[in-house]
Amino acid sequence: MEGQASTFPGQPLRRLSGGKHEHVASLMEMLRIDLEEATLLPQQRSEVLEELKVQSRVADGCDPIYTIESIHTISRIALDSGPSSLSREALRCLANIFLLNPETRQRWVDLGFSVKAAERLKIDNVEDEFLISRILFLMTYDTNLNFEPLLGQHLLAESLNTHIIRHSKRYSKSTRRHSRPLQDDDGALSENVKLIYNIIHYYPGFSDTFTTSIPHLLKILYRRKISEQPLAAPVRYLINLLGCLDLEDQKCCRFTTNPLFPSSDPSCNTIHLITILEKAMDCYPEQELDALAGPVVDILIRIHACAPESVKKQMRALLLPINENKTSPHEASQKLPSRLLQLSTSSWTPNLRNSIQTLMFDLSDQSADTYVQNIGYSFAASFLVTENLAIPTSASEAFSSAGQVKSVQAQKKDGEVPSRTPSLIEDKEREAEKLFRLFERLKRTNTVKARCPVQQAIEQSRWEQVD
């Protein structure tokens, strides 16, 4: 019949001339009948699934494949038999359906195919890893799927760890920075790592089961060539996952040596992460850096907390703005520490801003005095006030100096000649003015209780107006 697809053995599949809705409905009907009566030849069955996959990439007109009956039919083709090109084509259809129509995810869960999906992931195949991991990742949203039986009884965690080990074996020392992995491998690794991340988020009790993957994740990250987009997938997913794992291995004690700090080169992973951060700042605008680079700074904070002193020393040398301009972000150099200071005051990076300030504070041994000395008063003040930390005496003196010094060559209030050079006094005056404005803004917002040292000096009669 004109406009209908042929179902006679030996005849090729003809595309319908009607609308997409009717075309998709006809394809589903052919698959449903074939599943019960085997009316299609293998080539025709493959063509129908290929056409259905193409149609499922756009949600409009795909209502016939979003029904529970259609999901059941496609899932049977995908998971009832062993791995094959036909079953993987059906898995691709399901992945498209679940991505574009979240309501269908719960229907799939209700049909009970999640167990078969977890079992399928035990197979050592990169396509199966990619497709099953993506489907299960989507099931972590908008469904009531309980992953605990999958992780425990059906060894989902072990399967995911095994795939990560397989990926890490492709990264030998000789291939580092010389070759790139295949796109299919990167895609499978990305979906795997995203799924583990969500499992840990929703089932933190299973976090320890993924600790064994830490050395392999670090190996993949370190030996990958840094691309022009340094935080493109799967790198950003690897960093996100490492950030939520037990890097110190405090609970399981599986490692004799912390894989973060290998004995051959304890700083290699830390310096590599800092290099990624620096290249990311060259590549992405500030609006994107807030989400992309934030996890990199966060993991550097965690690394510093457990790092040996030699690694901490290198981190301070690479990240602290020692001997650089710390009075104005506009005057700062293009070196990494100064650029971090610029981001720590940017309105475009609220999350990254807080992370950078915390990192700088930790690198300063969590000492307010050292923190101010390292990054300057104007950069340090907002963090100290927000964290309810006492303003160091040296910072308070900066306020006093602005009102007590008549000129560059003037004497102090108590008659003592200042020992500091005129240029330093001018810097103090500029710092005091910036801090004064900062305290005034904080006081107006009522978000924190901030007392300006200048105001305190006035109230305590320690302030003298000079010409």
TrEMBL record:
Q: In the record, what terms sit under GO molecular function? A: G-protein alpha-subunit binding; guanyl-nucleotide exchange factor activity
Name of this chain's protein: Uncharacterized protein
Alphabetical UniProt keywords: Chaperone, Guanine-nucleotide releasing factor
Keyword presence, Repressor: no
UniProt key word Chaperone: yes
One Pfam family matching this protein: Ric8
Q: What is the scientific name of the source organism? A: Patellaria atrata CBS 101060
* InterPro entries per the UniProt record, alphabetical: Gua_nucleotide_exch_fac_Ric8
What cellular-component terms does GO give this entry?
A: cytoplasm
Q: Would you say which domain of life the source belongs to?
A: Eukaryota
Region Disordered, residue ranges: 402-426
Question: What family does the entry list?
Answer: Belongs to the synembryn family.
